[in-house]
Structures are given as structure tokens and as C-alpha cells.
Design a protein that fits this description.
two-stranded antiparallel ribbon, mainly alpha
């Protein structure tokens, strides 16, 4: 899916070139070559010798390897505009290592994780292209929400159960309300009405409803026990229920992957196949994912993951001071602020795709990412807590559970007809803002 996101991101420029060709300008091929030369001339001059030969094709090993590394690194760093924020990575780590002001440490590492999330997504996409559809889907499922997973693992290790639960719930709400709402709004302002594959959306929504039930049942069970049992006994029962439910949710997610990639792949073909008349086709597919080799993409994943883990460690360690100094609850930090960090780059891409009337891709990003959090990441964290001795459970507060249920209910209603417009987007964004305000005043 992310391969398609990148391919469609260049569609606007191609459309402009095609339009000018129809008006009697240069040929399409000439304009395409001119466009490529215009944006890559400086880069090519930097990595060329005096004879015009690329240095990364030089016969001398001591010249070819550094030039190849520099050329690949430059292409990777310029793959997304948010990568300019990478300057905050060493600064944030330095402030954290020297025990600087906790508020400054939080802000710097908050900004540092945004471009790291972009690079993580880019490296995953590059590796997915080489592995094919099935393994690529597994890679995207594993690393698509890696930032949230890493931050949550660090918080879970430190015993910050509330931060972990709020981060998971916040990621889902951010995707199905804020991101999907922005997609509907941005796309609806440009196109009067947009349509998407309602069958795929309905399948994802049904799985989201199951995940909602997995949170409602523990919360209502805990409330129904009342004072009939001691608190420790109730918590033990909830943990047993959470562990069993998490195993079932992981199995359901595995079955969904098998359903999507194998037995019912034809239902998802509309997302992955290029549209008729669209530039690229097979050539476009072949040209994607050739910036990084499989080994380079794997090394990039490891290095970026380590950087995210370090920044996440300092970010989580500074939360207590932020709560005391800024008078912001842990729930608000985990539910509103942290999801913005992990999903920023992917959110922007989804909105851009929606403005190009590629709503199947936008729906796949918004609801698909929420489904991964609900059916894969959250159950995994419950099982991990079980292993390391942390009482992570699926028992959320009643208020949080009700909010989650209402958000999924409203989203299911709006996507059930397979059509969207800007008013529906405004509804989703409005509901997200209301929820954010509610959690701002919600006490820990």
C-alpha cells in the first residue's frame, strides 16, 4: 500500500505535464526528462567527476563506495520534507544524556521522533518492495506502527501503564477521527463527492468493532464485580481475561492478513492496481523501491529503530516533570500528544492522497493503521507485560471505553455507504476536538 502512496504522490506533476502537452507544448517525454533533469542536476553534479561519469559507478572501490553511500543517503534524507527535523535527534539525545531541563528534553525528543518515524516508514517501504506482497504486508504490519510500539514498550518497562493504554487508545482515535476526517475534508473540498471500496472498509470496520468489544467486556466485568471481591482478586481476574483475549485478537489479526493477502486478495485489488491511463504501470512499479538495497534498508531499519528507542527513553523519562510543571495529565499526553509524533508523516501522506481522489489508499492508511494498533500492537503489549511482570491489561476506564465505542460507531456509520464529502470530514474532526478537550480536563 505504501508503494502506491509514493507513486501517487507524483501524480499531480505528471497531470500538469500531460495538460500542457495537450495544449500544444513540448512532447510528454521531453517535458518529463526536463522535469527530472531540473530537480536532479545539482545532485548529479555533486556525484560526478570532471568527465561527467557518476562517482558511484567509478571503477575505483575507494571512490565508488563513499560516493554510493553519499548518493543513497542524500536520496533517503530528501524523501520527505519532515526530515529537516532530524537536527533535533542529536540535540534531544544530548540534552537527555546531560539531564537537561525535562520540559526542553520532552520537546526536543518529541520533535526528533517525527522525522525518525518518516525514515522508518521509508525504509520499511523500500524493503517491502523487494520482499513481495505477502512478506511486504507483514513488514508493513510490523513496522507501520513501530514508533508507537517502541514508545509503549519503554513506558511499559518503566511501569507507566496509563501512558501505554492512553497511547494505544489515542493512536486509534487519531487515525479514525483526525486522519480520516482530514482526508474526507481535504478531498471533499476539491471533489464534490468521493467514493471508495465499501467492502474493504466494512471488513476493517467489523474488525474494529470486535476490538471495541474486547475493551468493553473487561471494563464492564470489573464494574460488575463491585465490592464482592477484593481489588487484588478483581485485578487478577481481569488479567486472566486480558491475556486470553489478547491471544484471540492476535489470532484474528493473523487470519485477517491471510484473508487480505491470500484467500480474498481480489477484494483489495482496487487499492493496489494502478488506474487505467495512469502513468507508471509496471514500469512505475519497477522504478519504485530502488533507492535502498535490501541490506541497506535492513541496516536503516535497525539504526532508526535504535534512535527511536533512545529518544523514546528520554521522552518517557521526562513525562513526570511535564505533568508537574505544565499541569497536563498523563492521559492527555498519551492520548493526544504521543500519537501525533508516531503518525505525523503517514498522516500527511494520507491527506495528500485523498486530495488526488485516491480514497481507497487513504481509507487503508487511516482505518488499516487503527486496526493494527487494536488487533496487533495492544494485544502484543498485554502479552509482553505478562512476560516481564507488568500488569498491563485491556481494562480501560469506563469513560475511555465509551469514547472508543462512540468513535468507532460514528466512523462505521460514515463509511458504510462507500462515499465521503467534506461535511463528514468536518464531523469527524469536530468529534476528535471534543474528545481532546474532554481528556484535557480528565483527571488521572
Amino acid at each position: 500500500m505504501r508503494q502506491n502512496l509514493r507513486r501517487h504522490a507524483s501524480g499531480s506533476k505528471i497531470q500538469q505535464i500531460r495538460s500542457s502537452t495537450q495544449n500544444g507544448g513540448e512532447s510528454l517525454a521531453d517535458q518529463l526528462h526536463h522535469h527530472v533533469d531540473e530537480h536532479s542536476a545539482l545532485l548529479h553534479r555533486t556525484f560526478q567527476n570532471s568527465d561527467g561519469q557518476p562517482l558511484y559507478d567509478d571503477e575505483r572501490t575507494y571512490v565508488r563506495w563513499p560516493a554510493s553511500f553519499g548518493y543513497t543517503a542524500w536520496q533517503t534524507l530528501t524523501s520527505n520534507p519532515v526530515n529537516v527535523l532530524l537536527v533535533f535527534v542529536p540535540v534531544g539525545i544530548a540534552f537527555g544524556a546531560t539531564h537537561g531541563n525535562p520540559t526542553v528534553v520532552f520537546i526536543l525528543n518529541f520533535l526528533a521522533i517525527i522525522p525518525l518515524a518518516s525514515l522508518l516508514s521509508f525504509a520499511t517501504e523500500e524493503l517491502s518492495v523487494k520482499l513481495g506482497q505477502t512478506l511486504g504486508g507483514l513488514m508493513n504490519a510490523t513496522f507501520g506502527n513501530a514508533v508507537e510500539l517502541i514508545v509503549s514498550i519503554v513506558a511499559l518497562k518503566n511501569g507507566e501503564i496509563r501512558i501505554v493504554q492512553a497511547s494505544m487508545l489515542g493512536s486509534v482515535l487519531s487515525n479514525i477521527l483526525l486522519v480520516l476526517g482530514c482526508c474526507f475534508l481535504a478531498g471533499g473540498l476539491k471533489h464534490k463527492e468521493q467514493s471508495f471500496n465499501s467492502t474493504v472498509a466494512s471488513t476493517m470496520s467489523s474488525l474494529m468493532a470486535v476490538s471495541t468489544a474486547s475493551l468493553i467486556i473487561p471494563a464492564t466485568l470489573y464494574a460488575s464485580m463491585g465490592s464482592s471481591k477484593p481489588n487484588d482478586a478483581k485485578k487478577d481476574n481481569i488479567l486472566i481475561l486480558s491475556h486470553g483475549t489478547s491471544v484471540i485478537l492476535l489470532i484474528l489479526y493473523g487470519l485477517y492478513l491471510f484473508f487480505q493477502l491470500k484467500t480474498h486478495a481480489h477484494l483489495f485489488d482496487e487499492e493496489s492496481e494502478p488506474e487505467a491511463g495512469e502513468e507508471g504501470g509496471e514500469d512505475g512499479e519497477q522504478s519504485e523501491g530502488h533507492i535502498l538495497s535490501p541490506w541497506a534498508a535492513g541496516v536503516a531499519l535497525v539504526l532508526v529503530t535504535i534512535a527511536v528507542a533512545i529518544c523514546a527513553e528520554y521522552l518517557v523519562d521526562s513525562i513526570d516533570s511535564i505533568v508537574e510543571s505544565a499541569h497536563i495529565s498523563r492521559t492527555f499526553i498519551g492520548l493526544i500528544l504521543l500519537p501525533i509524533v508516531g503518525n505525523a508523516a503517514e498522516h500527511v501522506t494520507a491527506v495528500v492522497v485523498a486530495t488526488k481522489n485516491k480514497m481507497d489508499l487513504a481509507i487503508g492508511v487511516a482505518i488499516g493503521s487503527s486496526m493494527q494498533i487494536a488487533l496487533l500492537v495492544t494485544p502484543f503489549l498485554v502479552i509482553l507485560g505478562w512476560i516481564i511482570g507488568q500488569p498491563m491489561s485491556l481494562q480501560f476506564e469506563i469513560f475511555e471505553t465509551v469514547v472508543f465505542f462512540l468513535a468507532v460507531l460514528v466512523t462505521n456509520y460514515l463509511i458504510s455507504d462507500g462515499k465521503s464529502n467534506y461535511l463528514e470530514g468536518a464531523m469527524l474532526i469536530g468529534m476528535y476536538i471534543i474528545i481532546a478537550l474532554a481528556f484535557y480536563v480528565y483527571p488521572d
